[in-house]
Each structure stands twice: as structure tokens, then as C-alpha cells.
Amino acid sequence: MNDSSPAPGAPGALVLDVWCELQCPDCRSALDDVRALRARYGDRLELRLRHFPLEKHKHAFAAAQAAEEALEQGKGWEYVEAVLGRVEELDRRGEPFLVEVARELGLDAEEFDTALIDGRHILIVDADQAEGKAIGVTGTPTYVIGGERLDGGKSQQGLRERVEEITDRLLAEQA
Q1: So what's the pLDDT on residue 3?
Q2: Which residue, among 135, 138, 140, has the nearest Cα to 156 in the 3D structure?
Q3: Higher pLDDT, 7 or 132
Q4: In this structure, which long-range contacts are made by residues 80-88, counting pairs with CB atoms below 8 Å and at least 24 apart in sequence?
Q5: Which strand (E) or helix (H) includes residue 145?
Q6: I want to staple 121 with a disulfide (CB 3.0 to 4.6 A). Which of 47, 68, 144, 169 is the partner?
Q7: Measured distance CA(154)–CA(12) in Å, rounded
Q8: 6-10, 28-32, 117-121, 163-167: range with lowest mean pLDDT
Q9: Is the pLDDT of residue 10 over 70?
């Protein structure tokens, strides 16, 4: 299991797995929902980035590895948001763009480049993808909370409200 926690929760916090792909325009659109959930629940809800690179996006697997390197360097979620905000640039430029974003955020860009070459984060990405397939993830974004899977790749309409309903119910049950 990947520990890519953009917002670590308090002990006993609910976990919302966010299955994401950094070359996915739908995931970029979902950022507003993710930010709103973080603002609403704070540390009562742990948002955990899970990788699900899609074959149709040729830079997605490298981007997932880069996100893991950013996490290791202490700016995982900040990096994810920066890359998602510029999906078209990732489409055009690929791995050099991933290293450039790291540099812009003050991360060790040389270490980023090395991580993409040596593949040190491949196993984490592979494990996430395998787990996603095993639980029925087929597209991104997909959310899993309290054992319920919500597929945002088909439609994000009402998705945040559904996540909030489930979160509110589960938090009330914990109280």
C-alpha cells in the first residue's frame, strides 16, 4: 500500500483513496473537489493519492513515479497539483517537463531525473495499479471511502456531494 498522503489525518481519521493519473484532464477537474474536501474535513479525513496510470497517456507512468519522488522530497501533493494544472504541457514535453516542475517547486531536480532513470518508485506505482484493478478501478479519478468506490472518470457530477455524504455518515458512526 502506498503512503502518498497529501493530507495526513489525525489518528483514527477516515481514509479517502484518490485514484489519480497525472496526465488526466478529468483528474485536473477533480482538484477543486479534493481541495474542498480538505478544507471541509481537515485532519478528520486523510486523502491518500493512489496511482492508476492509463495506457492511453504515454507520460502517465513516469508522472506517477515523479509524484512519488516529490512525496519523498516533502512536496507530494503540491507537485501533483502543479503537474495536473498543466496537463497539456506534460502531453507535449514528457519527462523533461516533470523535472522542470520539480525545479520550479524547489525540489532536487537532479534527484528527480535520477529517480525517473533508475525506476526506484516503479514498484509503488505497479502495486497501486494492481490494487486498483483488483477493486474495479477502470478510470480516473476514482474515489474509495469506507469500502465504497465512486467512479469520477465517467462523470464527476455530484461526486463531491456523495463523498461528503459517506464521510459525514462514517464520522457520525465513529462519534
Answers
A1: 41
A2: 140
A3: 132
A4: 80/6, 80/20, 80/22, 80/49, 81/31, 83/22, 84/22, 84/24, 84/27, 84/28, 84/31, 85/28, 85/31, 87/22, 87/23, 87/24, 87/25, 87/28
A5: strand 142-145
A6: 68
A7: 31
A8: 6-10
A9: no
